[in-house]
Specification:
Mean pLDDT: 91
Largest sheet: 10 strands, mixed
Order of helices and strands: HEHEHEHEEHEHEHEHEEHHHH
Helix content: 25-40%
Radius of gyration: 19 Å
Structural class: alpha/beta
Low-confidence stretches: 1-15
Number of strands: 10
Amino acid sequence: MGAGLGGLLTGCAGESAPVRVLRLATGPEGGPYNAFGKALARAVAASGGGPEIVPVSTAASVDNLRQLEDGSVDLALAMADVAEDAALGRESFSRPATRVSALARVYVNYTHLLVPAAGPVREAGALAGRPVAAGASGSGVQVVAGRVLRAAGTDERPLGLAESVRALRAGTVDALFWSGGVPTPALAELARELPLRFLPLDAHVGPLRERYGPVYTAVTLPAGVYGLAEPVGTIGVGNYLLARPDVPADTVEALLRVVFDRWRDLLREVTAGARLEPRFAISTGKVPLHAGAVAYYRSVYG
């Protein structure tokens, strides 16, 4: 890695002291953001020297951006739509965030909407009046679920993934929303126990893009995953690795070198078959790139 992290990750802005610890807002214990954060902490430690990356368990995207803005953490993971809301001061955020910058778009979340296969629900519009597990409070899942369900008049219940799985299995909710990698282990396990129907959401991509921009894309849950007999179209949302702008630029540049050197390890427990490439990583929409990220991508492209 050239100069090595021991030299690069202790860089400073002006005469500031070397960075010793970077707190990374992730998500709930056992979730994909938490897994990514712990893998990144291990990768940085293995690279030799530099600050300690300390993963912090949180409610995920909305919570993470608020903590990044108020200075509770230095780094964060968040879904692209929520990060753009923060940058614009929209919906969950009362004013535009000024202490948030992007390092990379690291992978894409697939929106899952599943119901018991034996039930009557075959499309999102049929969920009107029914209880739906729509993601934990403060999570990005809750944001995209709310946007899809807004016109349906559902009883949205703020539940995390583990609680949502238990509720669907027990029949206390009629549907479960999740946004994550494919396959998500908890859902794969549920699909082996309970016949499920994964509802298509690709028809919602166009209206969402018209209102919120290109943070939403059309993606497909492939045949075979979760036992699906055929592909199911759904909504894709990118995930950003973020930092406060006052994290030193050379620290960020060196951190990104670890991310791109070790991306297979970082994504192994998060999403199968994904790749991390600089030409896609720079697509962070309305969220400005950190100065250190700009320096890194210029060094890659020449």
